[in-house]
């Protein structure tokens, strides 16, 4: 594949439209553009998570996920094309089972907190949920394969689990466990 980006500032979007991968132009507030942007933002947040100290296996998994998210974004930018393979969802399911199997059961809801890497993974989790909502909205208006929606759903679950794993990895010395919600119900059971 040759160089695809030869000019970054084309000024073609100055009219409020943007080009899709298939050459069509749509308004920048189009549902497809929202979904593409949310996936791009999620991928960028994973880049931030990757800038933190991480266990090697988690780092390798997140790099693979970044490539798959790029495929997902590419698929969204080219209506009718399939770039995200269905085995990508199966890989997330396997990773989810593996990492969740290493964790203790939750006693209560947890806060998106702890180590910096865990907190950043929680931010990525919320971005995955938003991207999923955008893909669902797009699917309500246009044909979208199920794999992108399934992938984002599993990824948000996996990022929740990875945040718990990263708290326990405690690579920055500021974590070590989940940060539990101090709920009124829990307070009543303790006192």
TrEMBL record:
The keyword Transferase applies. Its EC number is 2.5.1.-. GO terms for molecular function: corrinoid adenosyltransferase activity. It catalyses: 2 cob(II)alamin + AH2 + 2 ATP = 2 adenosylcob(III)alamin + 2 triphosphate + A + 2 H(+). Gene3D superfamilies: Cobalamin adenosyltransferase-like. Residues 8-165 form the Cobalamin adenosyltransferase-like domain. It comes from the Bacteria. Transmembrane segments: none annotated. Residues 1-24 are annotated as: Disordered. It is an enzyme of class 2 (transferase). Belongs to the Cob(I)alamin adenosyltransferase family. This is Cobalamin adenosyltransferase. It comes from Caldimonas mangrovi. The lineage of its organism: Bacteria, Pseudomonadati, Pseudomonadota, Betaproteobacteria, Burkholderiales.
């Amino acid at each position: 594949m040759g160089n695809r980006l030869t000019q970054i500032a084309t000024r073609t979007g100055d009219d409020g439209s943007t080009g899709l991968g298939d050459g069509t132009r749509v308004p920048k507030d189009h549902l497809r553009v929202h979904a593409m942007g949310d996936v791009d933002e999620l991928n960028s947040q994973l880049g931030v998570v990757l800038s933190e100290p991480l266990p090697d296996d988690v780092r390798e998994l997140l790099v693979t996920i970044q490539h798959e998210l790029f495929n997902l974004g590419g698929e969204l930018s080219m209506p009718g094309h399939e770039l995200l393979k269905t085995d990508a969802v199966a890989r997330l399911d396997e990773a989810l089972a593996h990492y969740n199997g290493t964790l203790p059961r939750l006693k209560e809801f947890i806060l998106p907190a702890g180590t910096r890497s865990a907190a950043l993974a929680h931010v990525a989790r919320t971005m995955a949920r938003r991207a999923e909502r955008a893909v669902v909205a797009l699917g309500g208006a246009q044909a979208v394969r199920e794999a992108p929606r399934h992938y984002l759903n599993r990824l948000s679950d996996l990022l929740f689990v990875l945040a718990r794993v990263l708290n326990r990895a405690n690579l920055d010395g500021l974590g070590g466990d989940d940060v539990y919600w101090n709920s009124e119900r829990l307070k009543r059971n303790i006192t």
